[in-house]
Design goal:
There is one protein chain. The chain is of the alpha/beta class and 467 residues long. The protein has three domains: 217 residues, FAD/NAD(P)-binding domain (3-Layer(bba) Sandwich); 111 residues, FAD/NAD(P)-binding domain, CATH 3.50.50; 105 residues, Enolase-like, domain 1 (2-Layer Sandwich). It has 14 helices and 22 strands. Strands 1, 2, 3, 4, 5, 6 and 17 form a seven-stranded mixed beta sheet that branches. Strands 8-15-9-10-11 form a five-stranded parallel beta sheet. It has a five-stranded antiparallel beta sheet with strand order 18-19-22-21-20, with helices on both faces. Helix 1 packs parallel to helix 9. The chain is globular, with a radius of gyration of 23 Å.
Length: 467
């Protein structure tokens, strides 16, 4: 078969790229090695984790918060089997939706392992041992990533697990030892902490969610500690072993002393690694960069081989589904002869704990390191009437603005619905709004988003009203 574009991988980057290519009149095919579409995000990442986060949050609120609202329940207990069942139903509905979209947009889908024979030819190796080749003028590599493995601590999928297995446990851990204080680990650790597990986070750095503004990590640690999670920062894990149903994790504390932790599960969540194996890159002469082992691309996301593009987790930048989606659209439009753009500085990051954490633009640490003069304004949710009404008063919104021009340079928030609220900050910054612009825009009362307005007012001549 001859196509205009072949996309290898059907995750958020791949399926969006394929659909956009088809919308632009390009004859398009997708090659997916798994039996369902949607990649990590839809099958074992963003979507299933949010389903479990919501289920566990409902249980946690029923157990701890309903009494405050005048709702009295008794004999509450979590049904993990039902939570997993519901999660699987959500995944099935969502992945089936991608199949529908492919058919609607006349995208031809192949199931099998895709590998490059040359710049225009893709071999599709199927599960039954057969194979076929398809050709195209352009190829987009969108194969995503997989959980990073520590060389000295191999996962077994049973007691020492990755995020994939953590989404399908058959029992609530008594003591979950979580290696890594990043987004994925904290979200899944939060799920089981809400359901009654003791959760101990072992983090090599001196703060959690280290890529975000330091103030967010500090506040999130405080809140999650109140929820029962324990944090061992600046600890270097040295190994783990399994005996029967027990896991023993060893680590060095900040003083260099050996410590031992015992639990029934150990979740290794130290990041993700680009999935580039078996793609046939060597047939094209494409070499991975030495540092991150990702595929080098130019400003058009084109590799060193003309007509071969790469997007999402396999190229530089944050490993985020929405970043991959934007890149998928970008490449499709480049191939169609358009001139799209992506502002990588304004791709938001979110942690779906409760309270949620969200951030866009420059952190305070980055501004200091760059020597950019800035001013800051913050507003705590404990001063928000809407947050008090919903009993969600932890957290704050922080606005960073240029000291001279007042242009907003960064927005960092931890609080209720921060994942949704950050969109207003992204829009504002895309249009290069000043803090005073936001301060003068009417925000409905009472809403959580008033906190963004008040933080902007605080950054503008320190004139917040409600603190």
């Amino acid at each position: 078969m001859q196509f205009d574009v072949i996309v290898i991988g059907s995750g958020p980057g791949g399926y969006v790229a394929a659909i956009r290519c088809a919308q632009l009149g390009l004859k398009t095919a997708v090659v997916e090695k798994y039996s369902t579409y949607g990649g990590t995000c839809l099958n074992v990442g963003c979507i299933p984790s949010k389903a479990l986060l919501d289920s566990s949050e409902h249980y946690h609120n029923a157990l701890h918060s309903f009494k405050d609202h005048g709702i009295n329940l008794k004999d509450l207990k979590p049904d993990l089997k039902q939570m997993i069942k519901r999660k699987n139903e959500v995944v099935a509905q969502t992945t089936a939706g991608i199949e529908y979209l492919f058919k609607k947009n006349k995208v031809t889908a192949y199931q099998g392992m895709g590998s490059m024979l040359d710049k225009n030819t893709v071999k599709v190796s199927k599960a039954d041992g057969t194979a076929e080749t398809i050709t195209a003028k352009n190829v987009i590599l969108a194969t995503g990533s997989k959980p990073t493995q520590l060389p000295f601590l191999k996962t077994d999928g049973k007691r020492i697990i990755t995020s994939t297995e953590a989404l399908n446990l058959t029992e609530i851990p008594k003591h979950l030892i979580l290696i890594g204080g990043g987004v994925i680990g904290l979200e899944l650790g939060s799920v089981y902490a809400r359901l009654g597990s003791k959760v101990t986070v072992v983090e090599f750095m001196d703060s959690i969610i280290g890529t975000m503004d330091k103030s967010l990590g500090k506040e999130l640690q405080k809140v999650l500690s109140k929820q029962g999670m324990e944090f061992l920062l600046s600890h270097k894990v040295t190994g783990a072993s399994v005996k029967s149903d027990k896991v023993t994790v060893t680590a060095d504390n900040p003083k260099g002393e050996k410590i031992t932790l015992e639990g029934d599960y150990c979740l290794v969540a130290v990041g993700r690694t680009a999935y580039t194996e078996n793609l046939g890159l060597e047939n094209l002469g494409i070499k991975l960069d030495d540092r991150r082992k990702k595929i080098p691309v130019n400003e058009h996301l084109e590799t060193a081989v003309s007509g071969v593009y790469a997007i999402g987790d396999v190229v530089k930048g944050a490993m985020l589904a929405h970043k991959a989606e934007d890149e998928g659209t970008f490449v499709a439009e480049v191939i169609a002869g358009q001139k799209p753009h992506i502002n990588y500085n304004l791709i938001p990051g979110v942690v779906y704990t409760w309270p949620e954490v969200a951030s866009v633009g420059q952190t305070e640490e980055q501004l200091k390191a760059s020597g950019i003069p800035y001013k800051t304004g913050s507003f705590p949710f404990k001063a928000s009437g809407r947050a008090r009404a919903s009993n969600d008063s932890d957290g704050f919104v922080k606005v960073l603005a240029d000291a001279g021009t007042d242009e907003i340079l960064g927005v960092h928030m931890i609080g209720p619905r921060a994942a949704d609220m950050i969109a207003e900050a992204v829009v504002a910054m895309e249009f290069r709004a000043s803090a005073e612009d936001i301060a003068r825009i009417s925000h409905a009362h009472p809403t959580y988003t008033e906190a963004f307005k008040e933080a902007s007012m605080a950054a503008t001549e320190n004139r917040a009203i409600h603190i």
